[in-house]
Known about the structure:
The chain folds into 2 domains: 1-48, no CATH class; 49-294, Outer membrane phospholipase (ompla), Chain C (Beta Barrel). It has 297 residues and is mainly beta. It is globular and about 70 Å long. It contains 3 helices and 15 strands. A hairpin with a 7-residue loop joins strand 3 and strand 4. Helices cover 13% and strands 52% of the residues. It has helices at residues 2-22, 34-45, 217-221, and strands at residues 51-52, 57-64, 79-93, 101-112, 121-140, 143-156, 163-166, 172-175, 180-192, 195-204, 224-232, 235-244, 249-261, 265-274, 286-294. The strands form 2 sheets. A 12-stranded antiparallel barrel has the order 2-3-4-5-6-9-10-11-12-13-14-15.
Amino acid sequence: MKKIILLLLLLHVTIFAQDIKNEKNLDLDNLTNQESINSMNSWLGGNFALKPDKVSYLLPFGYTGHKYQSYNLDEYSNFEAELQVSLKLGVGKDLFGLKERYYLSYTHHAFWQIYTNSSPFRENNYNPEAFAIIPIFSDIQGFTLRNVKLSLAHVSNGKGKTSLTRDSAGNPIVVNTSRSINYAYIDMAFQKDSFLANFIVLAPSFGADNLSDNPDIMDYWGYTAVKLTYFRGKNMYTLMVRGNPATEKGALEATYSHPIRERSLFVFGKFFTGYGESLIDYNNYVTKFAFGISFSR
């Protein structure tokens, strides 16, 4: 019960913390240095170079029908919290005269077993990227191809190659818990009014050791994905499907968000079913509901 109260308190503080900063109750009238005034106004307005990339959220309530498989001596529950923080930094533009923009980004996705005794983080996924976005603006069958994204990325769970766990008979065994992949992808973004569609083609990068920890991951992740996004009033709906037709494995994810505070805080719900919810479980089928708040869309 104490952990639930702590989590609810964290949610409360997160929701209302921005109000403290945005009240702008500092007195700048007596300042004469214009650079100091500009710096303080920028700080008060939150005008910094880092911008949201993928959706950032805090989901205190996540439920799956089966307990998560443990790769160590911890016992995991089917209730957990889920957190994601994703930021990008613009690093260049228009190097080839295509009005393209260049970015570096980082996404951290954490799965927190807050409802168990020791409250461990069951899994952390670290995902840096370098990508370019090229504007196109070409009409195709009533849709406008807005841009093409070209990305090189890495994702790993930061774990070592060995971890102590137990087999079904309770005997201690050593397993490899390291998961990682270097990959590249192309993302084509289309628009028709308030309906958006992203078509993604993904492939692992070259390198002898790239898939050494998880050589069959593409059988479960797949090489293609489609993401649909629809805005209706203040509501935003997304549906993502990815998979590998050859193995008939993949995943589906649906989300819903509605603003609590315009452009900065949203009610957020997520449904996931399939493979690859996290790297450690890339080959385990998971169906999960989670809800909480997001700080971007």
